[in-house]
Protein 1
Amino acid sequence: MDAEKTSNNRIHESPEDLYHEAPCGYISFTGDAVIYNANKTVLKWLQYSREEIIDKLRVHDLLSIGSKIYFDTNFFPLILMQGYVNEVALEIKRKDGSNFPVLINVKKVKVKDTNENCYWASLFDISDRKKYERELLTSKLKAEQDTKTKTEFLNTISHEIRTPLNAILGIGNLLAKTSLDPKQKEFVDILRLSSENLLMLVNNLLDLSKLEANSFKLEEKAFAIRTLVNSLVHSLEIKAREKNIELYTEVDENLPNYIAGDPIKLNQILTNLLGNAIKFTTEGHVKLGIYLLGSSDTRLRLKFRVSDTGTGIPEDKLENIFQEFSQANFKVDLEKDGTGLGLSICKKLLKMHGSEIKVKSEVGRGSEFSFEIDYKKFDQRNSKFQKVHHLKEKMGANFSSTRLLVVEDNPINNLVISEYLKDWKINFDTVEDGQAAIAAVRKKKYDVILMDLHLPFIDGFEASSTIRNIDLEKQPVILALSASNKESIQNRLTRAGIDDFISKPFGPEDLHRILSNYVVSRQRGKANYTHQNTKECVVNKEEVSNDSFDLSGLIKMANNKPEFLKKFVLNTCTGFKTYSQDFKKAIQDNDPSQVSELLHKSTMSVFYIKADRLVKLLNECKCLLENEEEDYKNIKSQAEKTSAEFERIITGLEKFSRKL
Amino acid sequence: MNQLNRDSLIKRNNINIIGEGKQPIVFAHGYGCDQNMWRFVYPAFLSDYKVVLFDHVGAGNSDGSYYNSGKYNDLQAFADDILEICHGLELKDVILVGHSVSAMIALLGVVKDPSIFSKVVMIGPSPCYINKNGYKGGFSEEDIHELLYTLDDNFLGWSAKMAPVIMGNPDRPELGEELTNSFCRTNPEIAKEFAHLTFLSDNRSDLPKLKLPTLIIQTKSDAIAPLEVAEFVHKEIPESQLSIIEATGHCPNLSAPEQTVAEIMKFLKS
């Protein structure tokens, strides 16, 4: 081979030297990945002699197992399609089995006078770089984790603060209603105003973190847009009147009464914008305009505009007003009793709607915020919406004969609910604890009970299940009131015989909706507890060993069809006999996986009959079996307990089925 | 769930419908790439069939916003997508061709709703990659975890992953883009979850439920799905035939497209 001519006459380089002594590795391979050439550098790295590799090994043989899979599924397909691959990190295996990381570049080359291709690859040892990379990624991961932790902390704290704050606010409101001298009244007003502002700040913080975590979802339900606007304006009117500002609305005549979308988010956006407008206006007016921009068969586009004659926003500040946590912004707004978060929440809520907020402003003359939202047309034929649509009419007629019991120990909540109920002309009584509720139910007939779950002495769950066991001519509908997450307490609700759940905080509409749902469905004769059924339930509870299982769910599901119930119970009973055999075999084989399989298999059956104790026992067995050092005696005693529980369930079910 | 309309489906799965024929042939790509995998294969079918190409959600140019880990935590979810595509496009008498993991996805789809399919082609199928009591899938569970580790380091281009990190702009992946490879772009997180699903799945018990004529195409040397696995699949699917072609590797649709096409044609004409 000729020496390559270089610009420097004294230095001669042969192509061979350039190939073999290069500071990076080279290998060449065929379409079947068989290596047909490699330079000395790479041979040295790999600790192989030339003869050991050439025409003997495939690229796969040099790769760690993970890289091998990656090579076949990602890397090689890519070369075939693209003709090259750059900068892929792979782990290469040395002859002694140890690994090192390389960065590999490959190029496809056509073999002269054939249809075949061969592949040239260069390899760079990146052991050092890899260390830095790991370091860098670890730091990044840690930083992200830290931010997440902070957000969670903020979230928790905000929740914790909200509870006592609600109490302060409530007491403040009650205090304001007592007779006070002017000085005291001033103090109470400050107290109320400050706690209101604080609550708003906390609520906004929570919303913001929810928005950031993407845990908000847009709902779609029919709502009366004019009603929403009216109640919104009504709630802000007091503030406007205090400041001597006129607050008025202009709603497009062509707007239908009902549209489908997320009313809560819309309410939140408008509350924020109107609240701000009132805050920054000292004289003149604040106006909310809603206009129909256009509509298709299924959708309509609305424009919302909030304008004021307030202080206005300087042009250079317009960009900043939507940023949360910006120090300057925060300071300014706090002086004005705001949180500085409202606009950024609006912006994010609108983004969820695929919309954005526009602002026009002139210092000294006022501001105008506007946005457009696409809503679905409310479809009359859709029965789901229809229910909501006709609530109002249905309610008036039905509520007059409804007797309702409110069980709530918090005087504020009690007061608020009472006000709503008086408004709707519903007959009701209130009690403050579970014991009193039980006594009231024994004395008087109620159709509906609103039951707070966190009560002193006897809580809402216990009170409800006790009521369910009282021999009544007609069992009431029990609706729980709670600030807990419904999913987290669903099982307890069902077990206590509670029909439905109203999440706190709730507005009059929420309460209205759920009440009318139940009143209507009861009057249609659905979802009722008949005398006979209830009695049956109680009897069974007493006769069958108390906690092993509970058939009330099944009875409810069977809906007065004894033949169905009997079939179901017999099937379940047979199922449990098989499970019991499976369990004995698992213990014999000393095999925890059989127990987990059994747990999995029986999920629905144990759920139907609520055999929670059995599930617990089985889980404990599984744990004991999994622990290889576990004393055989412990396993044996636990297994006996579990078998006994199986027996109790099987005999209990048999006994029950005979009576049907 | 609401059935998506045709346009949304086309957007979701980046569906391409081409060809002169009537009978639809749907190509489902495997793990590691997107519909580009079929680029050397599908042209042969254009004159006689209606060719349908698509990307699984999360791969290629599919609409990633449809992806959520909760839904796609099971191969059945991808199979349901194929059924949605067939129903949404009103396809009948469908020939379903699945490569690699999509052979199993095809299996799950066809078993769930056999009425709209007529024949199935599986290229390099494996119902279970992990060795389990006597069954030889080719890999141990540790091997698969090592793969996932490799994936962490990669995603087609070291620079694609590191450049944004180094530049401090993880929100702007385009900064690293031009340095790297242009085919088979996948969202790294989704690809990792898909790898998890693919390599830890076990669909052995579903094989006998497939009652349609099925062709299994296998190369003589495939490190991902070894010959024994293909033989197992052949044994378990009642109406199946196995063709071993003169090629190597896991992707004969790319490395030996002519043979792959010839085998499929032969099967369809039979």
Protein 2
Amino acid sequence: MNTTKVGIPRALFYYQYYPIWKTFFEELGVEIVLSDHTTKSIMDDGSKTCIDEACLPIKIFHGHVMSIKDKVDYLFIPRFTSVSKKEYVCPKFGGLPDMVRHTLKDLPPVIDTEVNLRKSGKNALKAAYEVGGFFTKDRNKIKRAYKKALESYREFREKVKKGVLPCDILDKKLRKVKKYDVPNLNIAVIGHGYNLYDRYANMNLLDKLIDMGATIITVDMVDGETIKKHVKVLPKRLFWNFGRKAVGSSLHFLERDDIDGIIYLMAFGCGIDAFISDLIERKIRRNKDIPFIVLNLDEHSGEAGMDTRLEAFIDMIRWRYGNEGNVSAYG
Amino acid sequence: MKVTFPHMGNTYIVAKALLDDAGVDYIIPPYNNKRALEIGTKIAPEMACLPLKINLGNYIQAYEKGADTILTTGGRGPCRFGYYCEMSREILNDNGFNMDVITLEVPQDGFTELLKRIRKVAGSLNAFKILKIIKNTTIVAKRVDELERLTYKIRPREIRKGSTDKIYNEFQKKVRDVKGSSQILKLVEVTKSRLLRLEIDKDYKPLRVGIVGEIYTTIDPFSNFYIESILGNMGIEVDRTNTVSGWIIEHMLKAIVPFKKDIRYKEAAKPYLGTMIGGHAQETVGNTVLYAKGGYDGVVQIYPLTCMPEIVAESILPAIERDYNIPILTLIIDEMTGEAGYLTRIEAFVDLLKRRRERAEIEQNFALSGN
């Protein structure tokens, strides 16, 4: 059977919403062509074509689009203006389809349906009708597919809230519980999903931390209600969805006694991270004596430098607990 | 209470008219300068955009002169400017500057909170008087913008180079000493007639360049190295759609009162950028199209490094460049921008525009030269 093929770049909101897209398209009988995991050539292609000033994730996105554009009938690049009430996503998401369209040549038709939930959450269904309209005229079928898609998203969120990393769920990876001879550390990692879960872009940051004996807690694992409760202390509402979640969860991390250190992973040139990381750092430094580090990613990031900083950070935490006594002075 | 406010080009004239009329005690920070930028760069987040850094410098220089309250405006995103007020509050606080930040916007608590804030600054003024002040202030903003637009026309045509700049600089200096909207308006009129009396070359047909981009860096001459004056003195007539009055009317007054907004640029931007994505991205794209359609010879886009909306616009501009055959120059500004490199780029761009015109004039018998 010859089915329609829709290309989904494995970048940006893939790490947040792929379960929805997957179920939705499969229910409509559409074949999904997912681009590969980020590789050196994808990143290089992206940074060569995209304008220099864009941030790393946007460049990577361009690379992913290039890798699949010739294999598909449609490209799925929805225009995310807002994913929550009274809040926005980064402006680059709102202009993403236009950026891609005017930067890359010879593209298949782009599904650039706008997702704007700023005024009402009901607009999501509207967007689903529009996307579904590309493949079927049967509105009931679309609605059913949408409902199922939401169902699988809920499942996905439940798993994440229990502490499973989204990238592990998406890649169907099972982690073995390893035994370490040092006590386990709880490290909170704050950052956009597409920075945290893209293994190539962040040079395996999460795996490295886990290998050093850390349990990872990310912003996605914090409950929505908890975040809501904590951001109330801000005098002005944060109008970025990620910003609100990040500030809310870091305040929550500060309250918890079992968090040993906080890492903020940001991408060079990210406007939102520039403000949010600063805001969070100020809140942390004022309120608690807890190790905090900001790691910056760009396409030139050297892995060795990153490793050194990570190791130093973890060593420092262990030192604080006096666990370094067993290390021989002679290596 | 001594109020101060951030600089953005001629905004201080408008703010002065407002505060004079309202009888509020205020301090105008020294006009944007290197030291202000240095202070801001030191205490702001490294990756923050340039306007925040300059604003912080303004606040601290005003603090040194005795100001204790900051009057600024806000926004609802997604552009970062909407959170400037909170960032400034936190940063000043952490650095030991005890200043109060009052944001003039409709906050989440609604209108009453805004009125409360206005009362805090304006004291016992009644609603009627406040409306009258707002009206007069808007008129001042419009007149000052008209004066600025007049300099765009006269500068490339003046016979004695530098005379427009001289008169205009004098105006900017003198305006600090007059009081209230009525006297400011009088000074604007005097300056206008002085400019109109200048000797100009009436037959000269200058090249025309439109300036688009992020609002602060396009409006504020310190951040864009006085680009309007540079281009004007090279004999080029400039035009700029971002203006102080436009900003006050479109973004502040119309956000509160639902008047009809000017949406020509939206129509023009549609084929390239379908929706509002924050900041001035849609204006940049739309106005570039309008300039191209209006027969302009070139467009200059200016924005501060890491400005999110303008990055989207920049990636779209090449398509307009191609479709309308109009050269576009993008200038990105941060605290490290060197003036010499910046000037070279502008000069090269102007040379390109001149060549294009010459070439168009001799199109019929045009041939490449020997080498």
Protein 3
Amino acid sequence: MKKSAIILILALLVSTCLVGSVSAQDQITLTLWDIRTASDQVTPALKYAIERFESDYPQVKIDHVPTQNDNYKTKLRTAMSADNAPDIFMTWGSTGLKRYVEANKVYDLTSAIESGWRDNFMPAAMDLGTFSDHVYGVPVTNVAPAYIWYRTDLFEKYGISLPKTYADLKEVVAEFVENGITPFALANKNKWTGSMYYMYLVDRIGGSDALQKAINRTGAFNDQVFVEAGEKIQELVKMGAFPDGVNGLDEDAAQSRMLLYTDRAAMYLMGSWAYGTIKNENADILTKIDFMNFPAVESGQGDPSNLVGTPGDNYYSISAKSEHKEMAVEFLKYLTDEKMGESLIAVGNIPPFQGVGNKIDDPIMKKNYQTVQAAHYIQLWYDQSLPLELSQVHLNTTQALFSLEITPQAAADKMEAAAQEYYGN
Amino acid sequence: MKTNNLLSNKYFVAALFLVPALFFALVYLIIPIPLSAYYSLFKWDGIGAMKFLGIDNWAQLFSDTVFWKSVINNFKLVAISLIIQIPIALFLAVLLTRQIKGINFFKTIFFIPMLLSSIAVAFLWRYMYDPTFGLINGILNLVGLGHLTQSWLGDSSIAFYAAAAPIQWRFIPLYMIIFMAAISGIPEQLYEAAEIDGANNWQIFFFVTLPMLRGTVINASVLIIVGSLKYFAMIYALTGGGPNHASELMATYLYTKSFTEMNMGYGSTVSVALFLIALIVSVLFLRFNKKDIRN
Amino acid sequence: MIIKKIKAALIYLFLLIWLIITGYPMIFLVQNSFKIKMEFFQKPVWSLPASFTIKNYLDVINSGFYIYFFNSIIVCFISVFLIIIVSSLASYAIARIDFKFNKIIYILFLAGMMIPIHSTLIPIYKITLSLGIYDRLSALIGPYVAFSLPISVFILTGFINDIPYELEEAAIIDGANRIRIFKDIILPLVKPAISTVAIYNLTLLWNSFAYALVLTSSPTKRILTLGLFEFQGQHGIDIPLTLTALFLSVLPLIILYVFLQEHIIKGMTAGALKG
């Protein structure tokens, strides 16, 4: 009696286990993979787009599969490797997407784009999804340059004025340190966070073409500008500009922002999404938050209006294997339409779409938008503009700069050695 | 009749008994290793075309300082885990098998770390270690040992040890419970005889309990050795192998190479090396302890 | 007498210290699960919640958590059940039937322990696809069983080796076949080792992560450990909510353990992992 009951239960369990997802006939299911988990700031906007699409196309169901950032990359790469990508997937554009394009895994969106859709987008944002004049991914989220976010009240309290130049910045750092406040909230376990300082310093010292020269090999990654950027980082480190054990703190676990929220740190160099993140995590503090551009370096060649960041954070693409490409294109149009633009603005994003400027009411977001418009040049994050082989070396050496475990010269030489190996010269 | 004949044929019976296990092992365990060995001969990002390299990846491995650092870290982890987990687990097991008031409560709480997932443990310890908000520095400051506060996970010289601590924390309960079971299995008469001989607690432990647990300790050591050589989860979650590779392990290195840097060929090389190292070490350990099957 | 009391006091002191070391993180988990998001960021992390809110619990439960929970139970229990059967059969053959390849097969299984999980992700993904079970819970059972086999065989073989051979000899003389001997004599004797195998594998599988990440996709096929990441966005995290999910995911195991503790220890007694 008891035994047969156990067997029955097991059989039931096994059968639930073997059943796959059953879908009704004629019903189309589009699988969508991205990183819009329950706590992601963009999720409400995405959900709303799915809702609108599904009510307009009742025969189509969007099977939305969100996976957290790092896990998402592993999941997507594994699926791509076995040629089993979902109908629609998300990338960060640029070199990451390019790899999938080169392996013929991505559907060419060019003809759809050229039939009027292109007018939706800010032109600069299209570049990261375009390879040899063919479009493979459309930008959906945030135009996101990195700014120095700062606590206005702390600057006021200690009578410190905003730095215009690197020399000013050093003074600001010294004053905050004197008052027992960590100048910059930074969590650099993640490496890309510290990389922002390096990228800005390179831009301010050597101008917007310093990196380009190194990439096209008319310059080198151990040119003076790169060494100097490393020296300045270490100068700031030695002054105490960053939290203790900065390389052990995790940005994803909010260990940087916790310093900002608790009045322990005054500034936070981070992508413009920080505004949405702060709004989401600790709205009370929002009135005491503002941002400024990274200061100029005296005698440097960089234009201080230049920004480092991305013209579109997340790109959505369609798999070359999808059986419902046209339907998927239709869905992508819902992801990039006016209503999506509005709901993205509502969650604190500047969508990479045309004509969003006059829809933004929030003063900080408006300032953000205008700053982007005023920028002469936006340098894409190094970890996306460099090939993977080099971007990892960049991230690792920059992290080591922050812990003073490598000299600026050695870091630059290491980067150059990797570049020579990669470019073969 | 016929089945009975077959069933008395030991080869047939052995095959019958082994087939299910071999099926799972073959499909999921055995295939990946030669496959990894094969990938290790190529330059491959896991997605695009594969380019044959011959032994280049292997040559690179031998001169790769980060890899060797990770090997050393793995062996450090083996040593730390053996030295910390086994004695503490033994000590706890001995205490918990005595008649002490409230013992069940202790037993339950002591086992909890084992029930938490590595992800959860890493998540918790990250906040314990936070230099500013964390409990550990907080306590040090509170008791006037402020000079001992550290940036636990951020300092290359201690990050590895800091990240290794929660591993000990999580796995001690497992060995504790295994030892408890083994201790309860020791015949009462042995203890009685020892007591009649006037042995004190320490003598009983060293001359009765410990020798009786020899096999259990050896087996637990094998689990610890193998587990430490292929350890991944909490180190990856806490430090990602950093800073500056200070806490890199073979498994975190192969993961970073394969999935972050998309160098599947080299990642596979590291994974085959890990496999060989772990195999050699365990076989040597078992040999050394003459704990072999059919001895 | 005094010495004895001091001794007892020392023992309690040690137990108490260890209690704090093992128990505090749970307290941390629980106390912060009652906080609201803002509070976590504004107050020291070890402060008590200003007002207890159960909102986090409701949010976690409403996020499909119970489906993940149910999935985890199904997969883990079926896997552990299969592991017990498969590994005890194999261990018996290795320990007791002299078929010439015992040592090789044993070493083969031992070698299985050394395989790093992440180097198998892509091969197993491909195998799963070709078996047509991608994105089903059954896709997880194969790798779960396979990766638990080596340890289980290692434990059980050691244990069976220790069983006096005479017990079987009598049965063999009586003409019983191996299946009967296994079922009627060996299995009852290895029960303690089986409970070791069961609890060891259950705690490992309950917490396993990598295979579920790549081998399943639909939210309806998600398991608990994956669900824990639901509360980490691209650029932000809800820490109290994550802690609540962590707590809820471990709670069933704790309850199970409290109820089965005596059974487990008793079951394992008589020589778990004995050599």
Protein 4
Amino acid sequence: MKLLTGNDLPSGDVIWWTGSGWSRHVEDAADTGTDGEAILAVEQAARRVNGAYVIDAAATPDGPRPAHIKERIRALGPTVRMDLTLKPEVSPEVVL
Amino acid sequence: MYQYDKYDQSIVDARVEEFRDQVKRRLAGEITEDQFKPLRLMNGLYLQLHAYMLRVAVPYGTLSGPQMHMLAHIARKYDRGYGHFTTRQNIQYNWIKLDECPDILAELATVEMHAIQTSGNCIRNISSDQYAGAAADEVADPRPWAELLRQWSTFHPEFTYLPRKFKIAVIAADEDRAAMRLHDIGIQLVKKDGVLGGRIFVGGGMGRTPMIAPEIKNFVTADDLLSYVEACLRVYNRYGRRDNIYKARIKILIHEIGADEYRRQVEEEFVAVKALGIDPPQAEFDRITAFFAPPAFDAGASDAIDRTDPDFAVWLDQNVKPHKQPGYAIVNISLKKTGDIPGDASADQIDVMADLATKYSFDELRVTHAQNIVLPHVAVRDLPEVWRTLDAAGLAAANLDLITDIIACPGLDYCSLANARSIPVAQKIASRFADQGRQRDLGELKLKISGCINACGHHHAGHIGILGVDKKGTENYQLLLGGSGAEDASLGKITGPGFDEDGIVDAVEKVTNVYLGVRADGERFLDTYRRVGMEPFKEALYG
Amino acid sequence: MGDLLRYRDDAAHEEPAVTLDAFLGASNATAVRIEPGEDARALLPHLDRIALVEVAFPAYRDGRGYSTARVLREAGYTGELRAEGDVLVDQVPLMRRCGFDSFAPRAEIDSATLKASLERYEFVYQGAADGAVPVWKLRHG
């Protein structure tokens, strides 16, 4: 599957396209199929996202899992400061 | 240390308002991200993996107690309670909001700080020796030269869109504590017939194509300094490559045309530039120098010290260095306690260090390129109290220049350029060698980790270097041996195929075991490597 | 195409600028265009017959034109020095300091933003081609 991600312009937070808007949780991300670039263009022009791009991901029972470790770390937070991540309770190994 | 006058303050205040306006235009959609990016970068604002990151300048690594307190305040109010001290002697915050950034800059400006030119293709923050003004081996304090360069380079109209970033370091001792020859311009102050001048090295750097800077000029006096560096920069701005970002640093230009041809062009340009009268008069140099006069040391201070507490004695031997003033010492605060993130300090720790500076170090601190903090002027009699306070704050790790005093870039945990994580590798190596006796037995061993080829973690200059790479979507680590960023500068060589995260920790242990087995008396790891070469290490790793 | 911005009292030069090669090839042209990789020093023997030098900025990130401007001004060129192309509002103050006195920006520049930008800094640290007095001179008279 394809996900669309970027950063919120004023806050810089990592955000994911949900199909109708933006979420800070990768679990909410929707498969954009072949529409990613078109959505990106509209959303970026409206400044609802900054630095957006399309990534590959796999559908899993726990939700979309980005294909590359960099995007998995982006989705979670720094693995060396789990207290600052979106899921302080999980093991940093989840990004591997 | 240097203090702003109305001119300096006016320029920094104007910069805050300029950036406030630029942010407003970006948020309102008047400029695109592509147009905004170089503007925000020239103010140290990156868009990183998780958020915006703000890099605040600490000119030549020197700051006061109140400035350090301000850094803690920024960490608490605008970030998530900590900051990261960098290999460029700056501090960066990882969780900044764009719309709050102008307010942060306004707060910084109240203590004569800013984020000017901490990124972008311009002349970056000038770096220097963290022991400046305190070291027994310096011919002069290098910081007046660095301050002269800071002012000259700030908003330099001609050199704000260079082919690539440009880093300058100034030192004044034979022992190089600032990796001077790994800068675009490195200046070593020397005395010739009683006159102070600079040896100018140009074209060093790390990154993808590491190079040690050749000497371009053997003596430039302060009254020619700005004309000379202006000439150096102009030749670079006109002829540095712009077709390939990876070949755009000045080191590539000098490598391609040769040091002799570069020198010839600079000399020619210098003649033209010198006639413009851009060098300030001696009175300005004297004005700046006066700010760096030695503090009011107690001339009768004693060097006597009670070493009965063994933990204190170990810290004393490892982290405290001789001062040029009898009865005083230089205290190194390691930000590398086992389990810590190299270079990170909490807001509370930053406050503790600021208070110590005010109380015991004439209100002065330094940031080192090894991501540690220095209290430059501590009376020997105060060392026990300073140590107790540091220890209580988790800041008394006695490992300066040992294998656990690791330089590590933020890596893939924070950085959008990284290919692999650096910090977990640093933490695992530090744990493996945590035993104090073991690391002290290994002696001086500089281990440096970068999470990508850009080499922010100085891996080329590590006695042991580690480079994180992306191997088909998984993290992989190459091992390098034999680098040095000191006066005996050399570039590390890759041992062979890379390792996974646990494998690289084992590999480091193996090479240290080889060293322990073959070292001669008094040899550091680096000396042994240089004597015996790569083979025995390769054999242990891959044989 | 944005409006031409001029900081000169004379009338804008109408003659189209020719390439450096054409200019040096014994033409009688009085306006010449310098591309980023070209050496402005080739013009130095001819400065007295040039009325306009147009310096191309195909992309704002390419800063070679800033040095081109200073080289010409330092050699005594007093004619019109125009920055043409990807010239953005935040760059105009720096370009002015390097000696540019006219601008042909590809995209319109907002005049209020430009005015604020040009007036923002009361002081400068270094001497350049614009005659602004560096602070070290103000400090020591």
